[in-house]
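INTERNAL AUDIT FORM
Audit reference: QA-55
Scope: verify that the stored structure record matches its stored sequence.
Auditor: D.O.
Record contents follow.
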Amino acid sequence: QVQLVESGGGLVQAGGSLRLSCAASTRIFNWYTWGWFRQAPGKEREFVAFVSRSDGSLYYADPVKGRFTLSRDNAKNTVYLQMNSLKPEDTAVYYCAAGSSAWSTSQDAYDYWGQGTQVTVSS
């Protein structure tokens, strides 16, 4: 079993930055594909980014390309989501997730989820 704990959410003005962290309990950190998803009020949960277990390749959803960066610190068993040039549309609860699929943007492919951290971007 894998336990995930997100942190780093908060309030920020449009154009600002935040870095989200997801600390994982697993000792086989790199075996998993790690993903970030978000869910805005009244909206369905949507994919944000993932890093593949296969080769560490990164993939981003179109709305965040060029603004968000997913990274891993293998020594700390932690994944990050650096969010720059934030927009009010980015306001959501952000979740990190882990799964065995090497390449998936679907939440159904992820087996373990964090509790979520709130990101609010004001205009």
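Auditor finding: record pair retrieved intact. The mean pLDDT is 96.
Action required: none
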